Fold each of these.
Amino acid sequence: MIPTSFEYKNAGSVADAIGMLGDDGQILGGGQSLIPALKLRLNSPGVLVDISKVDAIKGISDNEKSITVGGGATHASIASNADLDSAAPMLVQAAREIGDIQVRNRGTIGGSIAHADPAADWPAVLLASDANVMIQNKDGKRTVDIDQFFKGFYETALEEGEVITGISIPKSGFNKNSAYAKFKQPASRFAIVGCAAAVDIDGGVVKEARVAMTGVSECAYRVTAVEKALVGKALTAENIEAAVGDVTEGRDVMSDHYASEKYRTHLASVYAKRALKKLL
Amino acid sequence: MTKYIGKSIKRVEDKRFITGQGSYTDDIKIPNMTHAYILRSPYAHANINSIDTTAAAEADGVVAIFTGSDIPEAIAGVPCGWQVDFKNGDTMKEPPHPLLCRTKVRHVGDGIAIVIANTKTQAKDASELIEVDYDILDAVTCPKKAAEEGAPLVHNDVPNNMAFDWELGNPKEEVSAAMATASHVTELDFINQRMVPNAMEPRSAIGLYDTAYDKYTLYTSTQNPHLIRLLMCAFVLGIPEHKVRVVGPDVGGGFGSKIFHYVEEALVIWASKEIGRPIKWTSDRSEAFLTDAHGRDHITNAKMGFDADGKIVALQAYTYANMGGYLSTFAPAVPTYLHGTLLQGLYTTPKINVDVKAMFTHTNAVDAYRGAGRPEATYLLERLLDLAALEMNTDPAELRMKNFIPAFDGVEQEGYVTQVALQYDSGNYEPVLKRALEMVGYEAFREEQAAQSNGKLLGIGFSTYIEACGIAPSAVVGALGARAGLFESAQVRVQPTGKVSVYTGSHSHGQGHETTFAQVVADRMGIPLEDVDIIHGDSDSVAFGMGTYGSRSLAVGGSAIVKSVDKVLEKGAKIAAHLLEASADDLEYAEGKWTVKGTDKSVGFGDVSLTAYVPHNYPEGLEPGLDMNAFYDPANFTYPFGAHIAIVEIDKETGHVKLKRFIAVDDVGNVINPMIVDGQIHGGLAQGIGQAMLEGAQYDDTGQLINGSYMDYCMPRADDFPSFEIDRTVTPCPHNPLGVKGAGEAGAIGSTPAVVNAVVDALWKGGFKVKDVPMPMTPERVWNAMQS
Amino acid sequence: MANKISVTVNGTTHTGEVEGRVLLVDYLREHLSLTGTHIGCDTSSCGACTVHVDGKAIKSCTMLAAQADGASVTTVEGLSSNGELHPIQEGFKEEHGLQCGFCTPGMMMTATDLLKNNADPSEQEIREALEGNFCRCTGYHNIVKSIQYAAKKMATTA
């Protein structure tokens, strides 16, 4: 398996990378989604701009009110990050379930959400975490609320010529009490369904909840009905059972050779409950 | 006298593999070598209107492009090596399997053109410039549908897509009469799904033509280099066999899929002469999914009748076997002589009939895959038994004990003659099941199962299997349609210094022959293991060989080695007798020396070998030298057996099955290297369990393989299994000198039904009385079983 | 469109030119003739191509050679030093962790990465760490034991 011919450019900085892109360029991050697609010739860019050596976007930094995860941070670095484990454990849990050791050592969070595979883990987790996506383009920088980021099947708010430099995770009550649960497709180990749940509990009752699903539909989404149903109640197994109904309502549920629409719909509810119950 | 036999000697071949110095075909580089890429059909069934290679031929680095029409008409294609004729005596339908398609494609992946360039990148790039105009036709992928009136024909001259039909055992009327007397009949319709072998090394072949010597060399990832040479020379290319060298270097697993003679092997040899340069072709994994011969793929209806005491009174089986688009090398033997003949199992069933229809479909060829036919037979029997136990509310272990053939050693007691054309060599079946029950803690498990109440369902499944391996007497297989003999050859060359090189026709691709065979030779000759070297896989050094498959290497290949060693010792004794001035009859050989019985007069093996090559003081009339070769043609198949038990836990909410424990007690006869035998069992178990739980090729109605990559076809991983709990009993094979039966396939043959039975047991215990969960038992399928 | 690269492989620095699309695994196998690193699939699944880049296990079929410019790469050929087997190599031999040997280099490279981060892994941790490495021969049973052997050996010699 050999990609079609392209020009490889190594960027020293994000600004450099944006400048190198041209009309026919694509950004290469960790390459764990892009390179397989290139090898299968499903994707054939003229220019590949490598940002995997841009150290400035690889770090994970704690800034009082939030934690900034660099767009170039690898899944492995997230999986072993103590600050995140304390501030938003679902990120660490999800990172540990992505691909395998080798993929986690190269694959990046920015690359993953830019690719926006409908069965990837990060979209659900970031939706639940109320993250902000930090983006750079030739004109400067912008920030996109995660709720506005995932637009559809492999489709995001990221525009041509833009690079994800970081993801900002609020150090909120709900992120501190968060969990990710995933039912894996046994071959690819992507999510058949994955649910990220983040619940802030104050005075014994749910003050705020964010629950998001991946793998179910064309892109990850929040289940606001469940979030609303939980607020004001104690987080108990009974209340979770009552709050989680059909978490796929209004969504086109995917169907494939491994999981039919009916089964996936069922699993989505099961995993919404399981993610929430991890918080009990 | 057994310093090595029976001991877990660490493998001598390991060093090169753990240091990255293994030499697999794709690792080999030859000066001036070109690289080939094969353009393949994206359609399952289509007429080829035209192929335009003009642009591709002008692409960078392209040396040559050949299509079907460039290949001489005389080269019709690769042959089938086994003929099974129709019940009515009509000859098996055997349409040609061309090296490249000329006018029609018959499965996705059928070859269209070979593009040869200076680099593999150039070959691949150029292949994209070839324009093929197809007329797409309807396809049929299911063997049962293929038999229906009006189904699309795979070959126009094969009516109803039937390659042959076949029947074995007692007449159907006798079986139905016996079935009519049954107090309970268990009937099951099931699919033994299509498996993709997935040896981790993708197939690879290098063709080289040497003009100076007018000689060809083929390096190929094969389990049997000599067989490839014979088939390719005599039946495909019509080139003289003595002018062809075939090398199977280090081979990264085979599991059956590298037995067969593939079109690419003949293509690179033919084309290497055309272009005057060596050509390497290496399969991508995606190509491997489409073109490595698949396994299994049976659709079966089976009925087993029991009398009031639970004794089996009759078995009737009907199977549609999918052959794919062409008949692969051994394909016709798999659903017939390797499947129907095993339906006696371990049981005294008095009436058995099996009826098989072998069908062409628009899919990749199906042939032997680890176990080949025997897993299908075991699956059929063992599913029926556990299901019958559930239906009759009796214990599945007791039901088996009740039906086991009584013990026989094949020496004092005759071998057991089955209703389906075999005579078992030796067997003692109760102990394996008893030992497995003991290991599992059966009574305690049943209590735990009854008490289970945590949203999980626990289940236990059994499988007590027999297989036929060490394949087999040439005369017998010849009578059954094999177009080859199934003996093995060996040569023992003793060097003047007493070091020993052993040339075997068996081929090791993971089995550890370099160690096991050396243990046999070193012990038999009484010399250090380090003094023995095992050489295999090269037709220029090994005189002849039938290769490795059907768990035959030690039973057949090892026996040939023993015969050669004995000939060496026999000749050595004559030399020793001369040196000791005694009669050869008065000598005994032990620990590497000949001693005159009752004296301390002796001569060592080294002195004898030196004398053989420096024959100054030498027996009159005896030839110098100490090289001996032998051919061994076994007297019978060997019949390993065993008992496998699976314990599973089902998550009721999701249908996810967790394999909690797997117990295997196998009897493979005598064991030379326990460590290696255990390793063979482990690997077989993983493949068998993989079939039950994870794997299975899926073609859609248009003939596309919809899970043709590791992203979709689920290869078993480390975290899919618990540690296996294994043990063995030993019932020696009475008819070969080592008493060995073969261990390569046992794990894959026994394990699959145990796992499915365990899931069905769990479901019944949970109140879901389903007969079957189709394999692979994906969570959705198990969940569906709980929705009814 | 060649890219000039300089890569240190098993301690030796190699400087050369590669096309952008050349994968690291092909660079190792074809350009440097280090054929111990294998190719078993085309979907970044099987792990036969696993090597270490700057000390971390990665799939060399899913990295461009150009991306390895300036990096330090260790392949199976660089595991042993001064003619002495690495404990993981010894473990695979002692515990019969290999049969055909094709997956073995990748397995060992992943295992060494695991043991670097977790010196005393449980059986389950070992099984999970091998998620990205396929073996068709061993059923993984003895691979797990091989890694346990290496962990023990490394603990006593550390």
Amino acid sequence: MNTIILGIFEEGLIYAIMSLGVYITYKILDFPDLSVDGTYPLGAAVTAALIAAGANPLVAFPMAFIAGVLAGTVTGVIHVKLKVRDLLSGIIVSLGLYSVNLRVAGTANVSIFSKDSIFNNPIVNAVFPEGIKSLATVIILFVIVIVCKVLLDLYLNTRSGYLLRAAGSNDRLVTALAKDKGTVKILGLAIANGFAALAGGIMCQKQGFFDVNMGTGTVVIGLANVIIGTRIFKNVSFVKATTAVIIGSIIYKACVAIAINCGLNPGDLKLITAVLFLGILVISNMKKERHKKNAQA
Amino acid sequence: MLKLENICKYYNPGTINEMCLFEDYNLSVERGEFVSIVGSNGSGKTSMLNIICGSIPIDSGRILIEDKDITKTPEFKRAEYIGRVFQNPALGTCPDMTILENMAIADTKGKSFNLKKGTDKKRIDHYRELLLGLGLGLENKLEVKVGSLSGGQRQAMALLMSTMTPIDFLILDEHTAALDPKTADTIMQLTDKIVKEKKLTALMVTHNLRYAVEYGTRLIMMHEGRNVIDLKGDEKERLKVEDILLKFNEISIECGN
């Protein structure tokens, strides 16, 4: 039982980092960004390549983030400068990244089990005895998630962050402030995909390997997490949206874990993810309809 | 001085729906003028504002500000010296942000949008003072999201925000049209006050003939992409609502309405 709960937190927290990125694109910018399916494994590929080459696991963090930022910038430029529709820009980038990821990692599977990672190194092993390894992982992840959340919150309260929020809410205001709304969009996509790649890199360090197919469905999980989180805490003003997204990620992972433990096959995971996401969309649509009816009455 | 020179603007060029809105249109507005623009629907009023602001491209002609050609300058660059308030109160503010955040973001215009704090605490008293001037009680609601304000309150904020930092031109695009008569009066008086205080050059499109006559230093009536009335100085002072209403009717009969 405990291993299941720890497993939920492990994966939930890693996906929470990616979901903070999806929160920027989907909620703040109102941009359904599918490139996340490619940038999440991109972060993993960069991390695997670096660690396999003997780099410090901590160095892999900024490198994964930067790789994601670059890929997000490409999505943004395709959408803003080449005027390709938002969904298509994301699809093009995520498809292209599949090959890029193979190039970066070298092969479709890279194992870094034998190398040090942030979860498995002499320091961590000295502090935490062998028996509570999973707990140590969750604690480390928790710290990383909190740092990401605080940094994002701080950023959203800077002048640049204000502009990003304005771009999603009313882009005419950005123009009125003598700023190019396209540039602001590109910046948002860059940061969002930075988070997605960072999450992929952390996942790679946690599971000890990179798999070229690990990104499939990432964007769906991210959207589900964001929608669950922001819906549940819609009327709770003291819970920040970023916190809501993190809690949403853990709740969603718990739902998937419950479904699998009810006897479904791990191979059904993607189907469960898809059906749960559909359920969330339908429920949140029904709620909206009810609000509308109430407002009319 | 703002100058429109030989402006040509076609809609749907090359199709059977091709329509010529402006052909060789000229206008020059002196510094400090407050121009009211009236005219029937489709007469080109809003298109003209869009051309000045750079929201729509022109087919030929030149737009000059102080003899500097801005025809090719993109819309957001022109916003450095042009402030604009739209008919829709939602367009001038950011609904998901609080009143304070909206004031702060408007105050940052012209500065770098960097990693400094979005809201400078030292400026809050100044924002309160500005909001107090609106007389709508917004100074006590700094943490309220702008999306939950009424149309009139939002429009007052939009007006305040667009004129907060130094600009030369204020473009008002039927900015009282979506408001109830009393709120519209309030916003109109506020507009007049701001234009006079800041010595702005203003262009106001309105369907309210009374506002057009009462406010401003110059009145233009447009019809089919031409100025059919253009009065300033004493002539504008002596003008009555009935006079332009008469002209309005003439035009309408001509069009067969």
Amino acid sequence: MTAAFDEMFGEAGAAIEGALPRKAYAALDKWMKAAPPEFFDARRRQAELFFRRIGITFAVYGEAESHERLIPFDIVPRIISGKEWKTIEAGLTQRAAVLNAFLADVYGPGECVKAGIIPAELVYGNAGYRVEMTRVRPPHDIFVHILGADLVRVGEDKFYVLEDNARTPSGVSYMLENREVMMRLFPELFARHRVAPVETYPDSLLATLRSVTPYASDQDPTAVVLTPGPYNSAFYEHSFLADKMGVELVEGSDLFVQDARVFMRTTEGPRRVDVIYRRVDDDFLDPLTFKPESALGVPGLMAAYEAGTVTIVNAVGAGVADDKAVYTYMPELVKFYTGQDAILPNVPTWRCREPDALAYVLDHLPELVVKEVNGSGGYGMLVGPTASKSEIDVFAHKLRKDPQGFIAQPTLALSTCPTFTEKGLAPRHVDLRPFVLTGADKVRVTPGGLTRVALTEGSLVVNSSQGGGTKDTWVLDE
Amino acid sequence: MRIRIDHETRYHYDAPVRAVSQILRLTPRPHDGQHIVHWRVDVDVDGRLRETEDAFGNIVHRLAADGPLETMTLTVTGEVETTDTVGVITGLPEPLAPQVFLRDTPLTEPNAALCAFARDTVRGTDDRLEQLHRLLSALHAEVTYDTRSTTSATSAIDAFTQKHGICQDLSHIFIACARHIGIPARYVSGHLARSDGVIEQEASHAWAEALVPGLGWVGFDVTHDACPGERHVRIACGFDYLSAAPVRGSRIGGGAERLSVRLAVAQQPMMQRQSTGFAQNQSRQIQR
């Protein structure tokens, strides 16, 4: 593998001594070189302290010392130039529009299937396809109000969409807190850069929620955040967002349905609810329709949804759009719905269900990452470059037996960004999850997102569950 | 054949219930082999009963009742006239793409043994109808009908492993096999007018339907090793028992609940007055 693109030093990579920083990083580089090393040690300790204090907010909701919940934070920001962001923003807006068009289509006329763009069994046979949605037309025809797309960068102008999160994308609270902590730690750095604000996200989210109120509602819509409760790992984010937006945080038992309308129990009696930002999965939303044993949902909620008296954000059944197999058809779907090419391309993917692709994949297994389409099988994936000869042989056999079940992608050299490690500043691989809000009035893309960083040297795994950390993400206003 | 159905479901709650909300799939839809003479769903408490449809095209009732309730009784009475269509179902609205019936659900997911059984059974023929008939007979022989070994939550895998089950389990296993070999298959709940003249039944019936190229949906009743005929009254279909369930509900309060079901499915020979009278007595008894 060639050296990865470095966010700070570019194509040459970070390894070369005395390399010049890319333009967006010039001011940061200069400032960092001027500061004494002890300064950063002190700031890193302060950052830890800030987050621990936020961690205490965690503990209020039922957990004593939630040390494991502190996701490591790195103080070196990841900077995206205004020009780069313009492309990303346009690409994300296009992506969100296509995901919404796709969902309205597959729960309606099914044109993309009829036109042969995507195989019927991939859509309709998909567990994320909720047949109940064929009888529901979500208010304003919006299914994915909140999209969290995972982007990776492999070159100066090369961003790929790694996956779409169209159900309940999380992580936005880290984006907001990272910024808050950075502004407290390094006010002088913000004075030297024009960093686009992310603090407006809760306002944008509230505006989006209010804009998608059902047609039949009154003037002043009531929105709530529906959480599975304090035992959910993302509960902190649920309460954080409800608090920032100034709306009620509710659990299923706080809501009830009467005459196909949703109400919230309050001390002043029942209050009508128009928009539910739910952080509860489809399966648990309504025990009368989905998992009967679910105590997290609201019995009869789907009847209200069908009657068009409530908006559910994101829509029920949006999961079919962020499925791994459906993902591979996104370039064709973008073309089908917009007539244009995808501004942000997919990671090149071979669909092993296609004979030519299968032949290529079998010939190049040592270079590729092969993934199972249905996570349910649990037979894992093959990472070619690190697999042994016998592992590759076993996998080749599996592939030939069930080509439909697999997709393959090249091993990507994710871009790196300078990061403080135990041995000092060193390049570490990063990805980016920006958030796109689609309302009835407009699309709002928050300039920035959550940059996740793989803290182990050489590791490409950025997931916080596996030792990944986060960084503040700056989009420069130029 | 004219078939009369009297179906009563009675709930007894240990403590008064504050509110009940249910979805009922208790009403048949007409199709080319089934004419609905009359049909009525009733509940003996104050509440709202609204008729609508679900995604599968089933007729459903949404029931909402406020307490306090100590008991609640659902009563279904109706008469259906059936003709034998050798299992082929036509004249039903089919709102969903057939491929949705290829997906696994927790109740119909196969394991390696089930997959192997399905593949071995159909080996040597590509004809879909022939494959399904082989599965029908092979499963009828392989799995013993037994009302004591399974519950409504038993999966196809569990029932196939113990080789025992009721009509629900046999249908789940059949569906798992058909889907595994790429045939869309669905669960059907309904009633059966028994040929031995027994009218009082312990539970309603279930079978499967599979999509056969050129024919459309065809029923397969593994319990009887036959395609459903004029003795079958088709009520609702779904992915599995759960999505076609006659009653799904939730309630607030009420403690433990006891359920008693009375079901009478009677053949009504159109000429014989006496039999008609008998069935009416039957229904009066139930409504008492």
Amino acid sequence: MSELRFEGLTVRYGATTAVDDVSLTVPEGQIVGLVGESGSGKSTLARAAVGLAPIESGRILLDGRPVPTTGRRRPLQMVFQDPYSSLDPRMSIGESVAEAMPRGASRLERRAEVERLLELVHLDPARAAARPAELSGGQRQRVALARALAGRPQVVIADEITSALDVSIQGAVLNLVRELQAELGLSMLFISHNLAVVRYVATHVAVMRDGRIVEQGTTAQVLAEPEHVYTRELLAAVPGTNSRSPR
Amino acid sequence: MQRWKGVIRTPVGLAATLLTGAVLVLAVVAPIIWSDDADAIDTSNILAGPSADHWAGTDNLGRDIFYRTLVATRLSVELALAATAIAVVVGLILGTASFLLGRRSGKLVNAGVNIAVAFPGILLALFFAVIFGVGATGAVLAIGLAGAPSMGRLTRTLVASVSARDFVDAARVAGVGRMRILLRHVLPNISEPLVVNATIGAGGALLSFAGLSFLGLGVQQPSYDWGRLLFDGIGSIYVNPAAALAPGAAVIVAGLAFNLFGESVAKALGVGVIGGIRLPSTAAAVATAAPAEESHASTDDVVLDVRDLEVVFPGPAGPIRPVRGISFAVRRGEAVGVVGESGSGKSLTALAVSRLVGDPGRVDASCLELLGTDLRTADTKAQRQLLGTSLAMVFQDPMTSFNPTRRMGSQLAEVARHHQGMDRRSALARAVDRMRAVRITEPERRAHQYPHEFSGGMRQRAMIGMGLMGSPALIIADEPTTALDVTVQQQVLDLLAAIRAADDVALVLISHDVTVVGEVCDRVLVMYAGRIVEDLPATELATGARHPYTRALVAAVPAMDTDLDEPLAVIPGRPVDPADVPEGCAYAARCPLASARCLTEDPALETDVAGRRVACWHAGEPVAIEIEDREIDELEEVEAS
């Protein structure tokens, strides 16, 4: 695993600046939580890192070298928000995972690797031939994680991976993220609008608003002593932290 | 496969399939069987009318026109299919060009296609016919190429819709090449609509061929297709009408067969929907206007009384019951939360109460009363008036609840005009006033804006404002904040609480988020598999819940004080499919407390002295929430298989 660093990154769509001069570091083997409301640019930042959004200026470095966003070898992998849309309905989950593997492996090696990855995300390897439609949302999201890991990534970007899931399943996916981080020493950029979720998985947190990072630091520090007014607003808005019931 | 069978379920589909099959069979066998009859020259009997020997008469060489029409099926169909093949192949190349070439070159191709589409097809065909020369080959190329632009445009639209989906992005991120993405991900997912349109295109090509041959630009003597026969027969139409009518009828029958077959397939496959699962969307709004008639108000303070509510949908294997007999009452000013996973029936309950369950769904209840008025009776004006005046609905996605082409102010005002008979001016004034009440800044200016100019949170507030056009007794809010950011969520929840406190309005808040419900509501109903499994005060949610499902739901959500060293509690397995509710307690398969009794007997919802209700054989028993992930998966496998 490696260190991912954004240096003065700016992304523009036409006249709107989605990401504005953002510098952010995902240290080796750590999970960095990125919070902010919709439209704050956090997803665009993620998409820029994997080459799905055009970079206006700035750099994205992996261990000091620019991240390749073309060609077969992709050291950055991404898990998408909606597991109902991120898996091809026509492909078996095994094929989806195998597709993301580096080329050159034999058929047998591929199958073994698919089994290993499915096992890693706690899915029965015997179900590699199943179509996404046969799986629950949580299981699909685990397939998506397995696919991201299949590319032997150095850093994984998780974009709101639990927000499309039922709360009962969300817990299992979060547990898995923490477990993978501990087992594989995964570096991860974990994007979420839910502060409680970020607090649970991330060691560092960055708060984004209007395309800029307004505050960053270790999770404990930012949540205990928020400096920026917007961070405080976010914290106050977490449900369950105050009671509004009038009687 | 199942879906393809749907094609022959309808009478039209069956007829079209049989007809298409018959045309194709005829195309194969007719020349083999009747070639000799069709080519037999009988100079003693030229240009004869229909007779027992020659059903459609004879041509100027005394050949039997009926047999010639049958034999011509092969050439006509062959040419049509060849032209369609050309149209599809060229169309695919044009349509996928922008995906493969990238934006700039793609734009150029698209512009070319757009211009080509603008030309009338027959004009293009004539143009190409001139280039390629008169004859069958020229005509095939002409009609094929003339059909290519529209096929290309269809392909491009389909490709664009599929390539916007995450799995295409995921493949890109994985380093899969464009060509491979196109072949493996995009084309398989658009194949159905393409096949359907190609079939319909074949019908069109058949007609075009008849047209070209009829103009003398198509098939030349001595070969003949239907168009050629038509061309030959038209000259003697006053002598022997059948000579022209027979091939004409053949063209109509075959053309209809292809078109209807294509349409039936399209209908059966639901083409237009591209892969994946579509959740049924419910976007309708009941809004309120005038205050409820005092005569409706019941003596006690129950606003909504629901007993034994059931919602039934017909299913392929018997009726499906997503809501299975639930009872609850909401008192004036009370806030009741309904929580549960997706598929637990919580939203359908709300829709049933507001009479928004449409066909083919059916709502049954032994009692369904809003302010003492029975809602089970037929849809009358008085009832609509009551729903319109006393009940406000707030939906998850306010964007789909507003008409995007009308100004917000007039949409709100319409409610008052419709239900209260207010005039335009005072209705609009009321709308502005209500927008101010839901804390929309500059309501006068905002009233003249369109829904897209509102942010998500503001739209949701406007939706609530719409419900407040009168003074409702009950607000039903179905996941009102799920689509909103946390800070905005807080504002909307605050607003709902304030309205409730100010006017003593009852609130039913439906949410999958236990923390939100626990914060806003007095009482919480927990739903599972279409039943209420627990009914308890919100204050007891965290510590006093007795149903293992409620406890698991609460423990599964990370809060700001969750222990970071422990894994989160998870609920193994997956929610119950309403079409397949197991015997006994529906939650038994996922429940750590489940015993043999749970698997056979469904526990009833028992009320205790404090008025709390719970449906569980093991209510309140201690439960080890933590379960190994491995086990979960095995359970999930069992569930899925």
